[in-house]
Amino acid sequence: MALKIIGITGQVGSGKSTVADIMKDKYGAHLILTDVIAHELMKKGAVCYQLIVNYFGKGIVDEVGEIDRSKLSQIVFHDSEKLADLNDMVHPYVMNYAFDEIRRLTKENKVDYVVIETALLIEAGYKEICDEVWAVTVSSKVRKERLSRSRGYSDEKIESILKNQLKDEIIRENATGIINNNGTIDEIIKQIELLLVK
After folding, report:
1. 15 appears as a binding residue in the annotation
2. Which residues bind ATP (predicted)?
3. Where are the domains of the chain?
4. Which of 2, 21, 85, 188 gets the highest tally of CB atoms within 10 A of its CB?
């Protein structure tokens, strides 16, 4: 089987990570998690660190010299221009890492699936390299319950994040498959199975 690249996207709290984890655990997919890569690239000494500190100032640095991601998120989720600037600083490097990883995995030919999990799949251009794009959707009620319980997010923070993300309708329009994540893990697995045999 030729390597299949699947992009998994959706708004905050939709369950992208749950779908990616199922792909890894059940199908042996190699995961490319753009949030994790971005966090690594923002660490002291990494390629994006100085760019971000120069732009946002030393006020975002903690006592050990690392970027305090909670301070940074407080700034960018209330200022869409600064969020766009942050994405412009970090995501070209994240994308280069993802492309290098895909090239390596294609050459090794040891996995059937590569999953790119990212909220910015469409905006950052990952869609162009994906064989399939799966949109993970969830009702706003379920999203709020999950984000409040799992991350301690207030309704205000959730709304602030959502206003800076693509609308759910646009994400669905750009997808080759939709996964509804209002139910159980077993229901998600069934939806994944159907998408994989399409």
Report:
1. yes
2. 13-18
3. 4-197
4. 188
25-45 b/e with 16+ CB inside 10 Å = b?
eebebbbbbbeebbeebbeee
Task: Count other C-beta atoms under 10 Å from residue 19's C-beta.
Answer: 25
pLDDT per position as a tens digit, 65-85? 999 998 998 898 788 899 889
Any known ligand binding at 13? Answer: yes
Which of 115, 120, 140 is closest to 130 using CA atoms?
115
SS3 152: coil
Superfamily the domain 4-197 falls into: P-loop containing nucleotide triphosphate hydrolases (3.40.50.300)
Output the pLDDT for position 122: 85
**What is the Cα–Cα distance from 107 to 111, expressed in whole angstroms?**
10
Tokens of 59: 């006020």
**For residue 15, what are the CA distances in angstroms to 51, 135, 143, 188?**
31, 10, 9, 10
